[in-house]
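Input record, target 12 of the design panel.
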């Protein structure tokens, strides 16, 4: 189940996001609108949901968090965008990476 939030997640929302993988939450974040979609099986699914809600492709970035260790990763196939200057599955731009991390921490951790 994909949960879309624009503020600190409730415990119930976090538990729903954890249902997919147990201790890991995949997320896609719109870094401009500061919206997080989490709990999906594939980043692509949350990306499509956010695009349908008006997000711009260039604002959407994927990654996740290991709930037990609180380690954040910045890796997703949706990040592979040479035309946006990101020729990797990891978020390479430090400003985008920092914004992604800040939103993830404020909404989930």
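The sequence produced for target 12 reads:
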């Amino acid at each position: 189940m994909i949960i879309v939030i624009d503020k600190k997640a409730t415990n119930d929302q976090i538990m729903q996001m954890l249902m997919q993988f147990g201790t890991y939450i995949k997320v896609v974040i719109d870094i401009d609108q500061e919206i997080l979609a989490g709990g999906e099986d594939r980043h692509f699914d949350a990306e499509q949901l956010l695009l349908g809600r008006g997000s711009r492709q260039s604002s959407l970035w994927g990654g996740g968090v290991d709930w037990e260790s609180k380690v954040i990763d910045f890796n997703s196939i949706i990040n592979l965008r040479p035309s946006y200057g990101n020729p990797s599955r990891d978020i390479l731009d430090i400003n985008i990476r920092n914004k992604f991390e800040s939103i993830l921490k404020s909404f989930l951790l």
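Strands lie at 3-5, 24-30, 35-38, 60-66, 72-73.
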